[in-house]
Amino acid sequence: MRYPKLLKTGDAIGVCAPSSGVDGSVPVRHEKLDKAHENVRSLGYNTLETASVRNSVKCVSADAKTRAAEFMSLYENPDVAAIIPPWGGEFLIDVLPYMDFARLSELPPKWVCGYSDITTLIFPLTLICDMAAIHGANFMNMGFAGIHEYDMAVFEAMSKPELSQRNSGFWGKFTDWNDISKPIYDLTEKTVWKSLSGEKIHKFEGRIIGGCTDTLCKLLGTRFAPVPAFLEKYKSDGFIWTLESCEMSAGDIYRTLWQMRECGWFEHCKGVLYGRVDGYSDTYDFTLTDALKSGLGDLGVPVIYDADIGHIPPQIQIINGAYGRVEFEDGNATVWQEMRA
Q1: Strand 170-174 relative to strand 12-15: parallel, antiparallel, unpaired?
Q2: Buried b (16+ CB within 10 A) or exposed e, 147-174
Q3: CA distance 153 to 170
Q4: Least trusted range by pLDDT, from 175-184, 194-203, 233-242
Q5: What are the two backbone dihedrals, phi and then psi, of residue 10, each rounded to the nearest 5 degrees?
Q6: Model confidence pLDDT, tens digit, residues 245-258
Q7: Which of 158, 153, 152, 106 is nearest to 128 (CA)?
Q8: What are 15's strand-pairing partners?
Q9: Strand positions, DSSP E, the chain
């Protein structure tokens, strides 16, 4: 596994929009983007933004070739140490055929961070280019009164060879996406990670891989998701799958997990972390736990759900490709990650 150089103050963080751009028709969006630049620069980093970031038409910042080119311009820029898109979106899949993964595999690795539709890019980067990438904070998360401690952890993930994260004390919602004067989150609900089996203690470790299931499922069976080859290469480590979903019902989640299993994605699996589900609904009397039990229950491995991963804040930073260890006890958990080759 290839890891980017550790981030240090003075490094530049590039911002491009390989999925949706930041539409200026709502003025506060550009203000929020400016605030994110300000907050990140206050940490001692430089920032660099590509030309199409502040555009959004038909859910994308630009045509697919332009989006790919802007990403590559940052990746090939020796001054840029990390790339963090403003947010996700809908159609990053358009970009994949224009990405030069062979070239990316030859270049020194750089940090690429994000979640939601950004999974569509970071997942292939890890599988095809054998490089670590982070499922975590988007750049627009930084554009509020301050950067929340759980989003700050993305800088820790990029700057230290090991990362330890505890579950949050409380979870909740975005305070007001259109008011940058407020803190980003309103966290009022007590966090309890849950064991699908009901057991109070679980310990497992392995190579970490995963992302947003809404977009992962679109990569199944394509050349951009060579999961079996990745699993074969690192099978001696075993694997921890870290998954989350947005806008998927219980039925959607089960069907996706079923398809992943049929494609061999859970071979050598040692455990699963599933994040709090956003935009979720039961499918008649078929619930989330039904979906997880039907899709994962007979794997014979720990399945922990309602984890701090994904769209419902706060979220821990997950380094795809890193070696991880999870210790769960009675609703609480610690996740360790290390840059093990």
Answers
A1: unpaired
A2: bbebbbbbbebbbeeebebebbeebeeb
A3: 17
A4: 175-184
A5: 95, -20
A6: 999 999 999 999 99
A7: 106
A8: 49
A9: 12-15, 46-49, 80-83, 111-114, 133-135, 162-166, 170-174, 185-190, 194-195, 201-212, 239-244, 269-275, 303-307, 318-320, 323-329, 332-338
